[in-house]
Amino acid sequence: MLKIGFVKIGRRLYALAAYTYFTRLAFLVSLSCAVISVASAQSSTSTPTPPPCQPDACPTATIIFPDGTWVSEWTGGGPFPRVATLTAERLNIELRFPLTLANTTLTVEVLDGGTFYGQGELTIGNDGTTSIQYQTGGETGLYRIGLIARGVFATLQFEATTPPTLVAQLGNTSTRAFAQTGDDVMIGGFIVRGVGPKRVIVRAIGPSLAQHGITRPLQNPTLELHDHTGAVIASNDNWLNASNKQEIINSGLAPGNNLESAILTSLYPGNYTAIVRGVANGIGVGLVEVYDLDQTAGSKLGNISTRALVQTGDNVMIGGFIVVNQATRVIIRAIGPSLTQLGVPAALANPQLELHKGNSLIGRNDNWQQTQIGGIITSDQVAEIQGTGLAPTNPAESAIVATLQPGNYTAIVRGANNTTGIALVEVYDLQ
After folding, report:
1. What is the pLDDT of residue 426?
2. Structure pTM?
3. Are 351 and 361 in contact (CB under 8 A)?
4. Do 90 and 216 fall into the same domain?
5. What angle is formed at CA 383 by the lines to CA 377 and CA 387, rounded to 5 degrees?
6. Of 40, 51, 205, 357, which is most buried with the most CB atoms under 10 A?
7. Contacts of 336 (CB under 8 A, 6+ apart)
8. Could you tell me if 337 and 411 lie in one domain?
9. Could you tell me if 88 and 119 are in contact, meaning their C-beta atoms sit under 8 angstroms apart?
10. Is 1 domain-assigned?
11. What is the tens place of the pLDDT at every residue in 184-201?
């Protein structure tokens, strides 16, 4: 008899540009076979335990979940142990029977609720395979399906639990700007809030921007990650040189050019800074990004900010972020003149802020004490901005408060009258 142990399969719950994960324990699944009658769920008579089937007479099954993960194909004696599922979860079930049962009738009976999609009887294929679809019910608990095929009886069992509650939060973020040298390198800051570590990947992108029409990309970006004390906790120049490059590849977020940089790591709650500069003092348009690789963790990205030199045309500062799971209240700020108090030279004197969703402009502001009505901004925001405790300290700086639905957003910062200088674009989660 084939002996098979336990396996553990990582399970992604829901997909988004920004991106949510869940770990599923894949239980040992097996089928048994014998000639017996099928017991109804309401019957007071217990179903007799069938004897172990012979290796050439045992069916096998693969349970495929909506996100594409699966419980691997198993075979052996005894009924199926309970497979962990969620309530109202629709499953694809691929069945394989011995070839002696090819072209025979398979009867499917729902024993404990849920919904079976298709006819109660179907024909097993020439190769001994067939597939069915089944959805667990809305209540937590045990759900069972009976399978009968010419003397072979088996029961699939599913233990359904309530899906975890998803919290509104900021997901992945990126900022594109012109990276220079000295004080004009690109500096991306972010905060991890909550409890426990957060798995992230931080990237510095340059050469591959040329494929998107950027005429002067940063040719060879390097990346440093600093903690709240300013200490360098990780660095990378050319992501293929990373010790965990295979993990970067497995994340699906490996940079598209070998000269670009990436750091994949777990970070505990705190403040972090990613610095992007060019090798040998190279300059050009670069992109600094932070991706949340585990949105089911007890920690989350709280706010994000990037400081860089704002120029004109393609070299304005463009900050992108994703709202995931549900509507999130945020404040977006464009900071310039108050940076002078922090020792930043050549600060942008009068930053202007635009908020876009896709190709649509949905809000704008120039000077936060003067609300510009339009798009998602329908009333004066001055008091609301002050109420967040995050009002800019200089009246020439800009801010927008909004409740944003899940999706991708872009904040563009430019100088009034095509002026240039160092500025800061920020997004704060107000939840």
Report:
1. 87
2. 0.57
3. no
4. no
5. 110
6. 205
7. 347, 348, 349, 350, 351, 394, 396, 397, 415, 421, 422, 423, 424
8. yes
9. no
10. no
11. 788 888 888 777 788 899
Q: What is the pLDDT of residues 137-185, one digit of tens each?
A: 888 999 999 888 887 788 888 998 876 544 445 556 667 777 888 877 8
Residue 44, C-beta contacts closer than 8 angstroms, at least 6 positions apart:
none
Distance of alpha carbon 130 from alpha carbon 5, whole angstroms:
25
CATH of the domain at 151: 2.60.40.10
Residue type, 113: G
Strand partners for 9: 24
Two tokens at 148? 């009968």
In terms of C-beta density within 10 A (0-12 exposed, 13-18 middle, 19 or more buried), how is residue 90 classed?
Answer: middle
Instruction: Report the DSSP pairing between strands 152-161 and 82-86.
Output: parallel
The helix or strand, by DSSP H or E, that contains position 309, with its residue range, turns out to be strand 299-310
Eight-class DSSP state of 66: T
User: Into how many domains does the chain fold?
Assistant: 2
Query: What does residue 244 show for φ and ψ, rounded to 5 degrees?
Result: -110, 40
Domain that holds residue 376: 169-429
Same domain, 226 and 151: no
Task: Please tell me the distance from the alpha carbon of residue 264 to that of residue 150, in angstroms, as a whole number.
Answer: 53
pLDDT digits (tens, 9 = 90+) for 379-423: 999 999 999 999 999 999 999 999 988 888 989 999 999 999 989
Is there a contact between 195 and 277 (Cβ–Cβ < 8 Å)? no
Per-residue tokens: 62: 């693969």
